[in-house]
């Protein structure tokens, strides 16, 4: 398949009618209860888009990401990339998808194997995905794209600061030359100057290499700075999917307004919504 293939609607990735149930508590003498975690989730991602995925804790963001990474299977609906459905399976079955969509982990310290050098870590997915290139050169180029020089190739993860480790994790993902990055809280745990450095790296990857991003972040000021479009998930449903500037200026949904007001670092959002709802959901007592 060509690396430039798109879905027949012109999107890179289409999420259609996605539903997922998660096991709830099992009470004595009663059958297992199921919690409806994602409800008819629909959206499309086009090439090079920077999209924020926001929502209160328990809204279903990570569950959606796991489905988009092909780690779990949906109970209904589908995710289609380059005309093919994403189905969890072996590395071999998913190789084509991993070349197009890569993941940036939340905690690089635990995802980077301390026994390997940075060079080996960046080259490892290139070998696994059978990407035909000069791997050492590609690793050095990827490091340069995230603002680290080639001397880092010989370092071990234990010799990196938090910000450097996150940039190595990004270099590892982009070495594959994907078209879309999925990132779950990639800036958490970093101090403010380092957050801003990593944000600039993500922006320049978009600007210089056209790489798209779906970013989960509780820090809406990051979404506001980085993303052109924001999707808000609430109790497993998409309640808003609009250009970021418009959504942050005038949220259409009371839950979005509440989310914005509760976010530090954002201007105060005066809204007419009555949003006296809880800040988190509990799967045992969905609202
Ligand atoms: N493995 C699991 N088994 C049972 N329930 C789960 C499982 N994973 C998630 N859930 C439930 O599904 C719902 C959505 O969880 P999810 O982690 O996707 O939310 P989230 O929006 O990513 O939250 P956070 O921002 O806190 O990470 C929650 O009610 C959660 O308790």
Automatic annotation (TrEMBL):
Pfam families on file: ABC_tran
Keyword check for RNA-binding: no
GO biological process, one term: transmembrane transport
One Gene Ontology term of the molecular function aspect: ATP hydrolysis activity
SMART domains on file: AAA
KW Signal (keyword) present: no
Residue intervals of the ABC transporter domain: 13-260
SUPFAM superfamilies given in the database record: P-loop containing nucleoside triphosphate hydrolases
Keywords: ATP-binding, Nucleotide-binding, Transport
InterPro entries assigned: AAA+_ATPase, ABC_transp_ATP-bind, ABC_transporter-like_ATP-bd, ABC_transporter-like_CS, P-loop_NTPase
Protein name: Peptide/nickel transport system ATP-binding protein
Lineage: Bacteria, Pseudomonadati, Pseudomonadota, Gammaproteobacteria, Oceanospirillales
